[in-house]
Amino acid sequence: MSKPLLNSLYDLSGNGILRVFRQQVTAKFIPMGNYRGGAGLKCLLVFSVLHYLGKPIFLVLIRFERQLSWLYKLRESKDEEQS
After folding, report:
1. What is the pLDDT of residues 36-57, one digit of tens each?
2. What gap in Å lies between CA 67 and CA 61, rounded to an integer?
């Protein structure tokens, strides 16, 4: 029996991170149009960290938003200074 390509939400099923890594490594060796050269290592590392840790980090940030408001204000003041 074969696995379905799409899940019930019409997203690609399976382990997406491995598929993306395999595709990027292939693009490094076989130039494919706009994908020529593939993504860099830093891009793939950021993607994998966000893929695995994005939801837990988001849940913590939402839960402690009131306590972290000073951090957001500090960031805004630094952004205004740079402008």
Report:
1. 677 777 888 888 888 888 888 8
2. 9
